[in-house]
Amino acid sequence: MWIPLAGLLLFAASCAVFAAGPGAVRKQVEGSMLVTGRVTIEQDGSVSGWTIDQREALPAGVSGLVDRVAPQWQFEPVLVDGQPVRGNARMSLRVAAKRLDDGNYEVWIRDGYFGRDALSPEERVAGALRDEYVSAVEMRPPSYPMRALEVNAQGTVYLVLRVDRQGRVADAIVEQVNLRTIGSETQMRQMRDMLAKPALARAREWQFNIPTAGEWKDDDSWSLRVPVDFFIADRRDAGRQVGYGQWDTYVPGPRAPVPWETGDAASISPDTLIAGEVHQAGASRKLLTPLGG
């Protein structure tokens, strides 16, 4: 989809932050935006409706893209006791952007995640479906490492945890670290390590409630994805915190395999997930058609 330059001025401005970075790393920078909402899935798997969170905060080209492709999606039917039923999914889309030679931008949906827990904000506060999914008891965030502060290292650490029946973290791995700070390849590896280590160490202390109802209540363990953001909010040279509806620029890190995951759970793109929230593996709807319609 083609959209005018004026609709993506924030993206252009944020890219300028990286202009002085090492050339080899600068070429890896991606511009994208996370768009969330809900979709309604009919008994045959077709989409009959969708909503976009804070539609007014999004560039018109982005919301228009979602409106164009969503009716073309086809999901695996939602089954209850073996029978197809009408259902919902929580939508989280990673929309990417690329500048063209004529000054316009091309945007497309790069990845998507459709969680089963399609709850309204009010339902989330009320704890709806809490008994059927793993939920957090205590998730104290990690401290910002001093060495990372000194070099202005910022980014998102994507954790994958395996929770046992006592609600403790039995295994943990850093699946990916995306950085919003540019350096040489060696510096980038060091910065990823600076952020990954404290996130992983703190995650091992977290506690969770396990499902007591629904299809996962008898499982021996549960796999969770939790993105952790590191952002320096009180420094002039720290850049800006990316809000909803704003273009984000970052360098994607290499993705590590998760030893205890296979199939659909292993195919989830980490950067489609919302930082600070718990995403349970296997608790997503399966899209059968391309994201781009």
From TrEMBL:
Residues 1-19 form the signal peptide. Residues 129-239 form the TonB C-terminal domain. The keyword Oxidoreductase does not apply. The keyword Calcium does not apply. Keywords: Signal. PROSITE patterns: TONB_CTD (PS52015). This is Protein tonB. It comes from Luteimonas rhizosphaericola. The lineage of its organism: Bacteria, Pseudomonadati, Pseudomonadota, Gammaproteobacteria, Lysobacterales.
